Amino acid sequence: MNLWEPLEIANGTGRRVLLGPLSLWLRHEKDEWWMAVERTPEAPAGETSIDETEPPDDISWERWVVTGESPVAHLTPVMPDRPVVVRPESPMGIHHNSKALFFVSIPVWLRIHVGTNKALKLCEIPTAALSNIWFGDPMSGELGYSLCTRARRDLDTKPTQPHCAVCPVTLHNGSTEDLNFERLCIRVAHLRVYQGARQMWANGVKVSFRGEEQASEVTYDEQSPQWEKVGAPLSEPRQAQTRNLLQRSFGNVRSFAGI
Amino acid sequence: MPDLSAIEWTTFLGSEQFWTFVRVAMLIIIGYPVLRIAARLVTRFARKRFSDQAAMLFSKGIYFGGLALLLISVLQQLNFEITALLGAAGILGVAIGFASQTSVSNIISGLFLISEQPFMVGDVITVGDTTGVVLAIDLLSVKVRAFDNRYIRIPNENIIKTEVINMTRFPIRRVDINVGVAYKEDVARVKSVIKDVITKNPACLDEPEPLILFSAFGDSALDFLVGVWCVKSDVLALRNSLMQDIKERFDQEGIEIPFPHTSLYSGEVTAPFPIRLVDERKEAAD
After folding, report:
1. A254 pLDDT band (50/70/90 cuts)?
2. pTM assigned to the model
3. With an 8 Å Cβ cutoff, is A246 touching chain B?
4. Hey, is the C-beta of B267 within 8 angstroms of any chain A C-beta?
5. Angle formed by the axes of helices B52-77 and B82-99, to 10°?
């Protein structure tokens, strides 16, 4: 069962799509498409299915009028629409002139199209509800999603999460000082999503730390991830990849929020 | 019409009056369009580097200043005695200046506001008791729309002289809420409950980290200051939802929010307060 293949929903019928904590109901009523969403954080990991389970009575629906399109829905996994700020469960330190590879699981968003050849986009919904976070100081910065991670360095011990795309992040400390960071900002708009045999993948990110006073050099891999065999990308980046971005990526200075 | 012979035409064309007429005509025909073009170019250039209001000011300054110079040049060509005219204008200017001190002060204040930019059109500001959205920053005054849709005109002079609070200058804001709990409550448990409420509120930012401060031993309650960060557009929604969430959760957890109250003692903390019941009818009979 492949969630990413076209899903035919006849008039007057519906489907439930289960992807990790997300339960998505799609209904097709005459010239309307209906959608309802429920998230269960404690849902069993690894659960993915498409069935005809009915939603709870008190669920709230969103509706779109779409005329003249075929009764086919397409689901596409895409990266979140804002940067993701990854916070390791415990502070990390990287010695100068050292490099480390981490695997970060990023919950994807589902882009819903209807019609032949994805003619019409209905909406995008997050598979997991991530909390908001501000990366930068209170006067300037950017809004992102907060992700707490164990920052695993070994794929074998990483449990599979079907709603997440694993992003290999290589951190290189090219400065003369040790890098102790408590948060890392990944601008996921530049990432693609691939489907592997076990899980989804994003292309790799390499961040080169050049010192506290300088912006880090960020490079996004053009090739598909090498840890698992993957096919063509399921989705393209939201923003075109730019080589060697200089961006502020690390945060370990806590702004004094005052009383 | 007098019939001028060729000699008379030649004499006329060589005369001083004719060439004066030509100079004046050239000044007007060439000078005025050049002035208009210059004003337009200044506007276009200034709009790229400054605000629309500043561009308008520069453009009008160039136009009217140039027009005055053009007029003086034309009058000089026509041999008008402009010294007296300028003298009279100067006296008139002084008179007008005295009469319009407030307006001039507002204009000068407006120029300072435009250069300093403490706020821009669209910002939410508080000036004294007035809070609202800035609609326009004009030469004499700033126009504000209050949240109840009143239209408020604030003279620029007032703004320069008063403290102005710009609520929307920075992208995030902290919402401060004071919470009081009964003295019998466990402080650590109260903080833990508040933190859980904050975590579950989608408008609260994880960072900057929320502040939960045990701020005072109040007269009637233990006082806490809860400071939570959000994006500036969510301030009202957050304040409303968070206060409700805290109240509901406290009710669920059995955490008391006390009313203001005062304890009376008769001199000793532990001794009961003496009370004597008096039967007024029996006393009256006696």
Report:
1. very low
2. 0.74
3. no
4. no
5. 150
